[in-house]
Structures are given as C-alpha cells and as structure tokens.
Amino acid sequence: MIAFDVRHYDSIGSTNDEAMRLAREGAAHGTVVHADEQTAGRGRLSRRWLSPPGNLYLSIVLRPDVPTARSVEIGLVAALAVADAVDALLPQHVRATLKWPNDVLVHDGKIAGILLEQADDTLVVGIGLNVLQAPSGVSYQVSTIVGCGGLATVDGAREKLLSALAKWFGIWLQEGFPPIRASWLARAHPIGATLRVRLADRLVIGRFAGIDEDGALLLDAADGRTRIVAGDVQAG
Ligand code: BT5
Predict the structure, then answer these.
(1) 198 bridge partner residues
(2) Nearest CA to ligand 1 atom 16
(3) 2-30 residues labelled b (16+ CB within 10 A) or e (exposed)
(4) Are β-strands 5-12 and 31-38 bridged in parallel, bridged antiparallel, or unpaired?
(5) Is the CB of 142 under 6 A from ligand 1?
(6) What integer pLDDT is reported at residue 152 of this predicted model?
(7) Which residue CA neighbors atom 7 of ligand 1 most closely?
(8) CA of 158 to the centre of ligand 1 (A)
(9) Ligand 1 center to residue 33 CA distance, Å?
(10) Is the CB of 47 under 6 A from ligand 1?
(11) What is the pLDDT of residue 236?
(12) Can you give the pLDDT at residue 197?
C-alpha cells in the first residue's frame, strides 16, 4: 500500500518540476504534488499541457525498488489506474480506452495524459485529467468527465485516482507485468487495427500486434514486425 502525502498548491508552473525538486530533497515514495492550475504544464517532447483551473494536475514521487528499465511498465500501470478512476466517475455504459503509450480516451477524445520523468532511482509520474474544463486550442478532440455525463469534483477525482493507482501499483509489484499487460490490452486498440505511428524521423503505418513483455508497441508493417519504444500513435 502506498501512503500518499498530498501537498496542495493553488497555482504552480509544473507539478512534475515541483515533485522532482522535492524528490531531490529526499521526498518519500508516495509524495504527491497537486495544483489547481499550472502555468507551464508539460506534455512529452516539450509539448504543452493546457492546465486551466477545474481539472486535476498532480505528480507522484515513486521510488520503486526495481530496475529503472521497468519504468515504461509504470506508465502503463498509471494509465490503467486513470482509466479505472475515469470509469468510476462516468455513467455506467461509458468506458475509457487506452492509446499507446499512456493516453486515456473517452469517446475518442483525450481525457488524460501521463508524463513519466526519471532521475536516478526516483520516478515522477505526472497526470493531467480533464474534469470540468475542456481546454481550447488543442489540435485534436478532447474530453472531460463532466462533458461525458460524469459527476465529479477535482478532489473527488484525485481520491479515486490515488486509490486506483495504489491498487494497480500493488498488483504490479506482487505479480509483475503480465497482468498489467493483459488488462492494458483489454482496453486498447483492437489487435489488427491500422495504426499510424509518428517516430522522431518518420511515420510508420501498420497493424497493431500488441505490446511485448517490456511494454513496447508491436506493429506489423509492410517490411515486417517493428518494435517501437517511443512514438505517437495517430488516428488509424
Ligand atoms: C501528455 O503529453 O499527454 C502528458 C501530459 C501530462 C500532463 C501532466 S499535468 C500534471 C503533470 N505536470 C506537468 O507539467 N505535466 C504532467 P503528450 O502525449 O505529449 O500530449 C501533449 C498534447 O496533448 C499537446 O500537444 C496537446 O495537443 C494536447 N493537450 C494539451 N493539453 C491538453 C489537455 N488539457 N487535454 C487534452 N489534450 C491536451
């Protein structure tokens, strides 16, 4: 069980930066930085995460006692936890789906993003979840809990998310990656779906063939099976 210690801020640049700073000062496993808004919220690859008041922005310091190479798996653990929390806040017939590596979608719109950052033996997992406010100026479809018919407060969403995270982190520590991989696949693109994956230097188009035992994306492209460790999946 993780003992969460939540530090709340009204406004901050990025909760990930603050969590990293606290981690460098020795903050314990389970320290959580939660802000009502971020003025410099970050996505992957220096992209922006729009962070107006009304949504959940938090970062968790984790010190898992496992090789750093397994941190990719924690991204998938976090995505499952966010998806469970989102499901619990939405009407029963609506379910969150997952897009590799860490996006959580509802009705094909991105409702949450996850940013993993690492320094030595410390991992910071940053999660942004749209609860009340759909940010404007995003180039693709965005969802919010309330816009999808859910009922939630930001603090209520935080509690659901942290308890789901404690649950999935515990499963991962006790049973390893196989149950995470199976549960992730059950919520993800169907096997065989056409995916377009933007890599640093090119676009790869192929059929989704699952994720391997390390969490990497497997794609059957014209020139055979490709294993992808970093990229952006675009609409099929
Ligand atoms: C992510 O990056 O999806 C990771 C986002 C992590 C945000 C959290 S908030 C708490 C913590 N503190 C931080 O500073 N960050 C973390 P990526 O896959 O690169 O997606 C970024 C893209 O999502 C942007 O380029 C926009 O197109 C889109 N976007 C920006 N804000 C959004 C929002 N609020 N909801 C949905 N999409 C958004």
Answers:
(1) 203, 232
(2) 126
(3) bebeebeeeebebbbbbbbebbeeebebb
(4) parallel
(5) yes
(6) 93
(7) 128
(8) 17
(9) 17
(10) yes
(11) 52
(12) 95
